[in-house]
Design brief:
mainly alpha; Arc Repressor Mutant, subunit A; Tetracycline Repressor, domain 2; 2 domains; DNA binding
Length: 191
């Protein structure tokens, strides 16, 4: 088995354990049992259980962004792109992953781990900043701080994900998402 596929096997097995028992409720021994990889083999690929989670997070976010980029068209406006991003989030949202991310953020104490997770989110969300910054520069959006607008948009999405964790009603989520996106876009459009 090649290195990346064994790393992915460990991560996939850990994800199953995490979604079943939570991050804090899962031991490395359970990941060993689920993956069939020895404890030494796990520690060969990952420094810690947190490191496994960071790998899962980076992979998950990367896959989400790749699926979003694949639906973009060259002539999409910034409004179209932000709408497609939201629609892609709705189509791919997984309450188990959202709950797991929330649990990890809430229980994480090590600032280096927290910074690494924030770095994964920021690195992978840079394209949203580019869309918004370009739209501001082109006069399509009002002359606002592009960093603040990007963080507001991401906060909107995170809030919707939080609602999804509690309601699990897709129609409720879609209605709220459409309404929130409409309010957001109207607030930043240059009319």
């Amino acid at each position: 088995m090649i290195k990346e596929s064994k790393k992915d096997l460990i991560a996939d097995s850990a994800l199953i354990c995490f979604t079943k028992s939570g991050f804090s409720g899962t031991s490395v021994d359970e990941i060993v049992k689920a993956s069939g990889v020895s404890k030494g083999g796990i520690y060969w690929h990952f420094k810690s259980k947190e490191d496994i989670f960071l790998y899962i997070a980076e992979r998950h976010i990367g896959e989400h962004i790749s699926s979003f980029i694949s639906i973009l068209k060259e002539d999409d406006s910034p409004k179209d792109m932000l709408t497609k991003y939201m629609e892609n989030c709705l189509a791919t949202i997984d309450p188990n992953i959202s709950t797991l991310f929330a649990e990890f953020f809430l229980q994480a104490k090590d600032q280096e781990i927290i910074d690494n997770l924030k770095g994964i989110f920021h690195k992978n969300m840079g394209f949203l900043y580019d869309i918004i910054r370009d739209a501001i520069d082109n006069g399509e959006f009002r002359p606002l701080d592009p960093i603040a607008v990007t963080h507001t948009y991401i906060g909107l999405i995170n809030g919707l994900c939080h609602q999804w964790m509690h309601h699990k009603d897709k129609q409720f989520l879609e209605l709220n998402a459409r309404t929130a996106l409409d309010i957001f876009i109207k607030g930043i459009e240059n009319r």
